[in-house]
């Protein structure tokens, strides 16, 4: 029986982006008919060409290394234990590897392994995932891996085991997890990348040691991981939330902390996930911590998060101007936010 998707796939037009140089794509796929369909799709992208179509791992490796295509689309079955993905990503680091799994065969851990081995996309190959395939071919990177929405649900179901077994704190898995969250929270788009960058810039001004601490990076990256447990109709509601819906949304810090608990992160990481919605005046959530009771990194992140949320477009509203958002942050100096951190933030912007 076909597994029901946990998260609905976003529907939208297939991206057509004109690049100056044609994107070169290698397709490594056992099934000739699927390879042909993929080739047609790649041609449909516009300004992209299939430079090789192979059906064995050996040929994929040899030709992949020789041609160093921009993108290699690889049938997961051709890469047992991720051998092909690992070898190709080591020897041809410029090639973005997109792995296609077969949903009916149920290979969630294979997809997790592929991402940990150097793939930047892990998606299911069926027509429902075309949008993800196009996204993976066009815009994936090690920083922004593309995980099919349906695969994201399965990945999440298995990632805790994967992490607690042998890949604790593996950067690739953490990035994949963060990408899974972002794939679901369609309103946030590039939020994660922007907010992490901004929070790190503030953190550098405040405490350079903390800004370099990777536990802090994990916390920034995974701050909203708990949103994975917030129902879709609340998370992506095209309008303001009701009181009841807000009470569900407000569970995401605790939910996030519970989700990542088995990984054994430090208090610094957990403090950001759990306390990034606390307020300086003690009226935030989940614990109503006040002032310096709130971890420094969480206080710093809160300012960056609020600024990015206010200036971002949402499906139901335009983003605020920088000036308006900065004015609100100034108004909240000593209310929502640590006054010293607001001063640091303003120093970056004014
Ligand atoms: Fe949050």
Number of distinct beta strands: 6
Please report the number of helical segments.
17
Give the SSE string: EHEHEHEHEHEHHHHHHHHHHHH
Helix fraction by DSSP (H/I, runs of at least 4): 40-55%
Quickly give the structural class.
Answer: alpha/beta
Give the second-level CATH assignment, the architecture of the largest domain.
3-Layer(aba) Sandwich
The largest sheet, given as strand count, sense and whether it forms a barrel, is: 6 strands, parallel
What's the CATH class of the largest domain, please?
A: Alpha Beta
Task: Indicate the mean pLDDT.
Answer: 81
CATH superfamily of the largest domain: Response regulator
- Molecules bound to protein: fe (ii) ion
Instruction: Estimate what percentage of residues fall within beta strands.
Output: 5-15%
Supply database-style keywords.
350 residues; alpha/beta; Rossmann fold; Hypothetical protein af1432; elongated; binds fe (ii) ion
Give a quick summary of the entry.
This protein has 350 residues and is α/β, with parallel strands linked by helices. It contains 17 helices and 6 strands.
Structure description:
The protein has 350 residues and is α/β, with parallel strands linked by helices. Helices cover 51% and strands 9% of the residues. It has 2 domains: 23-184, Rossmann fold (3-Layer(aba) Sandwich); 191-349, Hypothetical protein af1432, CATH 1.10.3210. The protein has helices at 32-45, 57-67, 83-91, 108-116, 130-139, 149-165, 171-184, 191-206, 208-212, 214-221, 232-235, 243-249, 252-260, 267-275, 296-311, 322-331, 339-349; strands at 23-28, 48-54, 71-75, 96-101, 121-124, 146-147. The chain has a 6-stranded parallel beta sheet, sandwiched between helices. Helix 2 (57-67) packs parallel to helix 3, helix 13 (252-260) packs antiparallel against helix 14 (267-275) and helix 15 runs antiparallel to helix 16 (322-331). The longest helix is centred in the middle third of the chain and has 17 residues, at 149-165.
